[in-house]
Amino acid sequence: MFLAIFKYLKNISISINRFWELVLMKILELVNRFPPSIGGSQHYAFKIGQALAKLGHTVDVATTRSLSPGDSRGIGVGGVSWRNRYPNLQGKSESEGLTIYRFSPSFEAYTYLFTPGLKKWVRPNRSNYDIIHAHGYTFLEPQYALVSKGQKPALVLSGHDLTQPHKNPLLSLSLRLHNATLGRRLVDHYDSFIAHTPENVADYRRLGVENGQITVIPSGIDADRFEMALADKPRGRTELLFVGRLVAYKGAQYLIEAMPAILQKLPEAHATIVGEDQGYGAYLRRRVAELNLRTAVTFTGRVDEVELIRYYQDAHFFVFPSINEGFGLVVLQAIMAGCYPILAEAKALKYLLADIGGTPLAMTSVSTIAQQIATIVLASSPRDLSAQVSQMQKKVRADYAWPAIAQKYQSLFEDLLRTTDSKGY
Question: Which of 19, 41, 220, 343 could lock 135 by a disulfide, CB 3.0 to 4.6 Å apart?
């Protein structure tokens, strides 16, 4: 009898220990750039890492010292750089529950950052983690974590950049080569793939990922930090806002082209374009000058989050005609700040339009897109749109706040570890 009781208690103890092993995990976020760098994948890695840490998990980050394309020696989206210009950030630091390891890139080739120190660190340390969550399909960093499927750690990829709309034949060729080589390795070795929208599921399927390996988890937002009602916006002039890097596919040019028609009916209207110039800014400023819009359009450059929130909260319309968004986090931010969204009916933005709301833009010619923007802005006052924006905000808060997103990741990671454990690895 005593032996039976002892075995029973021993089994309970083993079960409890195994429970905590599953629930409290050690997670590595692997990403090519990290805040203070500004961008979608680095923001996502920071926020999901922070949210998982708040659930009690140990979360480390392995990244580079680069803060933006072109600050490393090599060839980036803005052209050739002959020297390294990234800051000498601490190699190891702590921030909001995360331990961050940074390494210096030696060379940049478009989306590839060659960082031998990062690779050298990840390879021997990867077995210390239960989960490695890598960010970026066309980046090199996810390659450093490769192990055989089913072995510890479980490998999870968030492919924020799954497809790129390259009109340049050389860049299109380079993407096809990546798909056939390094991309193929990711598909063959990673255990699970995160799609931010159903559109991303199709992207993964085209790359050969099995349906059972794909989980749809949207991006998240600090809802309280951005929230403002459209009815509480400053009255007077109509303010339009664009937030994004100054590259052609993001679409700031369409807002500029729409301004003359808007100003004919709303002479006090103003457009603010927020974002870092990555090679397209000179053209945009030239068009502003040619259209005599110097007082009607403001370029802010890169701004911090405090300034960004202020621009959101001053704006009535958020115009974002981007044709290639992996998710569109800025749309959620704008909605929570009380902006009515006018979005390209393309890629992930098409999903957000269907799930949350807003007005779609048919992405045809420059003049047609500009005319659509002007028509939408002139057809309704911001006050008429208040009820719609309020409903959108409720949807965003319920489905896209970071605590809810973190719970989805936690469930996925636990399922992956259970699957690995059941196979005896």
Answer: 41
